[in-house]
Amino acid sequence: MDFKFSEEQRKFRQEVGDFLEEELRQGSFEPSCDAWIMGHSPEFTRKVAQRGWIGLTWPKEYGGQGRSYIDRLILAEEMLRYGAPAACHWFADRQIGGSIIAFGTEEQKRELLPKIRSGQAYVGLGMSEPEAGSDLASLQTRAIEDGDDYIIDGQKVWTSGGSHMNWIYLLARTDPEAPKHRGISEFIVDVSLPGITVRPIVDITGGVHFNEVFFDSVRVPKKYLIGERNRGWPQVLNQLDYERSGMERLMANYPLFEALIQYTKQTKRNGKPLSEEPVIRSKLAQLKIELEIGRLHMYRVAQVMDEGRAPNWESAMSKAYGTAFEQRLASTAIEILGLYGQLSPESKWVPLQGMASHSYLSSKGYSLQAGTSEILKNILALRKLGLPSQ
Ligand SMILES: Cc1cc2nc3c(=O)[nH]c(=O)nc-3n(C[C@H](O)[C@H](O)[C@H](O)COP(=O)(O)OP(=O)(O)OC[C@H]3O[C@@H](n4cnc5c(N)ncnc54)[C@H](O)[C@@H]3O)c2cc1C
Fold this sequence. Notes:
By secondary structure, the protein is an alpha+beta fold. The chain has 13 helices and 10 strands. It has helices at residues 7-25, 35-38, 42-50, 69-81, 87-103, 106-117, 232-243, 248-251, 254-266, 278-306, 313-337, 355-362, 373-383, and strands at residues 123-126, 142-146, 149-160, 167-173, 184-190, 196-201, 210-221, 225-226, 268-269, 272-273. The chain has a 4-stranded mixed β-sheet. Strands 2-3-7-6 form a 4-stranded antiparallel β-sheet, with no helix packed on it. A hairpin with a 2-residue loop joins β9 and β10 (272-273). The longest helix is centred in the C-terminal third of the chain and has 29 residues, at 278-306.
């Protein structure tokens, strides 16, 4: 096992860091927590696209660079370290582009991949429904064949980035008579089609990053079915492995961690810098240990992908670990900042621009989104430990 990055990879990290430093210097963004999922900046996404950093791992014939998943992880890690607003392209780059390459038609590849790569297609994920979360195969949204189209009726919920997306990946039931895992298909749908209504949901932080999406007799041309009809279940399972796999499951709050360390150096309590308090030093050091273990998990997952395997139990393990780390980071920040840490970003007395209270509230959802920690542990129990399925 070799833990070293190659010279080329070190240079690439430097190149990404230089780009982000320059963007910061120009004031194009303010570092923030959760910026990979909540920071929507079409302008920033366009600049990332111009560098060829969307679809980095895709084959060259589809406009990608054919680079490794380790390279992509380096890019993601730097974006998260800087709290850069990458939400417009994150989902499409992470999983939908890859799904289209794996299962889509040549026509879909020629139409959609250039839109994603150039930073013009912002894709939302239409999986969950009011009665289908962990048990996703219970979904009820229907797609009924009618001539050259499917007619879609139903509702999705918790669709992240729904107010910004112009495409939605959709999981719908194409055979209501089949056993529930065998009658599901995948689609990619233009959100401007008549009959689609997007309604924002206010989240626990007071923000509106996720949405309900309603489909009322939406006519979707058949050419937007991804892969085989009624084979959507194995396809989406493969996609979920990629959804769970990334550094955003560990470093979404990295700007808070950095700011917290600086805060303890600069803030005195009872005449002494907080950074000299043994309990605080120990808590921060503990977080650093956990962060580095988390990074090893994430790089292992990328290595699995570079071997050409979909990471299954590996991404379940890394996501369960990473999101629990982020929850501990947020709790530690609140403990160190005391009651001030609970203030909202608008408050005059709030420290660290309110990142601690935002992360504390937001991190509750991390162990739900993309598969709850209980479900991930079930996957580990089954696929790694060989325990019986339930
Ligand atoms: C911030 C955020 C963003 C999201 N973004 C999206 C998005 O973009 N697109 C999308 O489609 N969805 C999205 N989701 C939805 C997410 O995928 C679901 O919340 C998740 O799958 C859980 O489903 P549920 O909320 O219906 O909870 P439920 O499935 O009802 O689960 C409730 C509780 O029961 C537990 N549980 C359920 N089944 C089992 C079991 N078999 N064994 C043990 N415990 C179990 C769960 O772990 C959980 O604690 C998002 C959610 C959040 C919080």
